[in-house]
Amino acid sequence: MGRVLIVDDNEDNLMLFQEYLEDNGFETALASSGQQALSYLEEHDVDVIVLDVQMPGMDGFEVCRKVKAQENTRDIPVIFVTAKFQDVDHVATGLYLGANDYLYKPVAEKELVARVSVMVRLKAAEDEVKRISVTDDLTGLFNRRFLRKRLDEELSRARRAGFPLSLLMMDLDRFKIINDALGHPAGDEVLKAIAGVLQSGFRQGDVVGRWGGEEFMALLPNSDAAGAQISAERLRKAVEELDLSAIAPNLQVTASFGIAVFQSSNPETDASDLISWADGALYAAKEAGRNTVRAHSYIKP
Ligand SMILES: [Mg+2]
Questions:
Q1: Distance 144 CA to ligand 1 centre (A)
Q2: Catalytic: which of 214, 215, 240, 241?
Q3: DSSP per residue, 72-95
Q4: pLDDT, tens digit, for every residue of 15-36?
Q5: pLDDT digits (tens, 9 = 90+) for 109-123
Q6: Residue that finishes a domain, picked among 103, 133, 163
Q7: Which residues are close to ligand 1, an ion, with C-beta < 5 A?
Q8: For position 146, what pLDDT does the model report?
Q9: If you measure from the C-alpha of residue 85 to the centroid of ligand 1, how many angstroms do you get, rounded to a whole number?
Q10: Are residues 10 and 126 in the same domain?
């Protein structure tokens, strides 16, 4: 049904809203101040916030402003609850702050439940759109658009922190032959099986996705060339040993890998440098006979 955070300085209101919502199948969490609500949101996911406007200390407007300013809470719908009946300026202020809806005290059970339900549905639909926009349809891995965006983000993070960032490109060897011999549906099954290998083959914090066709990319934050080499070599073996007999008897695939590394000693390195260096290294791996790993090497001026 959905998880609702109820924020109100009045204990009776908290209890009443909790009862209304739980009687109608929602899960609830309670906060009796803005500060409490914000700390709760640091640790927990919720689908909707029902937020009292008039609270001592941090009022509902301030809570809303903070919720909407944080990347991880920005998309949680906020329903304001106010005692100021039909105060147009008041309502407008809240909506401009990013609130999605308004309720006036005293709040009727039916109306609370109906408005919360609408917001839960809205949140679920938005989450789904967001998920689809970053996901590769076939494999369920991140898609190219997401990888490109994350590469920029990870690169600025690495630049700020003075950490290395490795970019790993992987391309299945002679994949066209599989498609031609077994047909595209079998080729798709192979790509899905490879995605499974990739999903379990990385550290937490690494980002892996499908770059296009039979090409995959991984971003390894705080990993230098030696670390990336180890990851790539482990994947190369895992791909080579992958059992694909469910797709076709004796089917085996291999992959080639290219590595490029951002080093803080070369802060001017940008995303397109990394991509083209990794592409170049991948090309060298293909030239070297495939099923192997190559890293772009730097010629320092
Ligand atoms: Mg109040």
A1: 47
A2: 214
A3: TTTTS-EEEEESSTT-HHHHHHHH
A4: 999 999 999 999 999 999 999 9
A5: 999 999 999 999 999
A6: 133
A7: 9, 52, 54-55
A8: 97
A9: 14
A10: yes
